């Protein structure tokens, strides 16, 4: 295994590896307000048969947040099989990392509807029984508005009552939460009994909650055995070869819009911020393949009066070289060739170091140039004050502030898994990834057909998503690198460093709408404090904010 693999963080894997961005038509400035509009066709560069469908955009005004919704077709049910954390989808597959080598299976007739709340459906009698258990767990009153089970269990009989309901009646999501609380309370036997009971209710080819449950169950087992770091390292050691990994990342890139949202919104915001400057310098703190800047080069080439001189600094700690098959010089050559093709004067500077090691001198900022800084799903990997007194997260933000940039674009997952207690962190991760797994189980773009038992889909979920979940659930201290924070927390950090918010314009909204037009109508856009939020139904998933 190459040395670079030892520190690879899969949370940024799609950004690092995807190398074929969709083209984005240029958008004109029309102000910073938001309004509803119909989307036009969105040109695609991938060689997949496209069926152009008209998509109407509606809005729902709720609590001063405006939603942009798109039409979709219903989800399709597929048969379910087995196999957690393994590439195989045979009915007797086992997890090579599970402490217990019991085989995985699931029930095939659950008829889950994505329009309902997350979790497995049950009869009225069983639902009532679950409510009674929840009332016993929470007591007559609850201080938690989200309705989740968040209080500690003070009586092991409450777990036993869940088990007495029968395996077939266990709700996957609530049982996972109960296991997390049992682990938090040190009730090892009860946690183990619930995990054993849940084993046959989850499958990597089942409903969204069953697929998620298969991976979360692995994380919980590792957490209980205090082997989270070992399991996480093993998962990274079993990483597929670069060609396979590139394929898996491309699959996930195509079937969910979260990275397309990030690339599109950041590019348009940067283009607008430097539209009158003759010398432009972009610092990308996770350059990966450099694909994001191919479209920016094309847009700058169309500028009235001629393109500016463009300089790109790519920060990369070497992890991406595994997929690239080489160093950052390959990225520079690729971008230089594309810039030459479009007549844009270009220069590339490689900063082959991790974000926590970056200093002012590594970035080579020159006077007289318009500076744009991009943080694409990477700042949450920087250790903060809860991990180290050095606090590289805030240090890096202050360093960028000292450069006096024209614009800073921040793309992050809207989740809070940084400093919460284990059970709280688990519930937050479970809620977030339930929405993610559900979102990729509905309408897929470009007429892509990828049933739940598709081996590439399973591998994409396993290699691109599951490892992040295991890291959040099972790892602690410096080994836990997936430390997400919500927009309000990022806002506090940036304002404390002296930044002010730069509201995203209407053209950013229309650009993202073009990306979303082929996806499910359950994806929604809304504005929050000048930032753009992409959500699944009412659950915020990712945000794009701009600062200066």
Automatic annotation (TrEMBL):
Residues 170-230 are annotated as: Leucine repeat I (LRI). A motif (VHIID) lies at residues 280-284. Residues 89-105 have a biased composition (Low complexity). PROSITE patterns: GRAS. Residues 89-122 are annotated as: Disordered. InterPro entries: TF_GRAS (IPR005202). Residues 249-314 are annotated as: VHIID. Residues 474-548 are annotated as: SAW. It comes from the Eukaryota. Pfam families: GRAS. Residues 330-362 are annotated as: Leucine repeat II (LRII). Keywords: Transcription, Transcription regulation. Belongs to the GRAS family. This is GRAS protein. It comes from Artemisia annua.
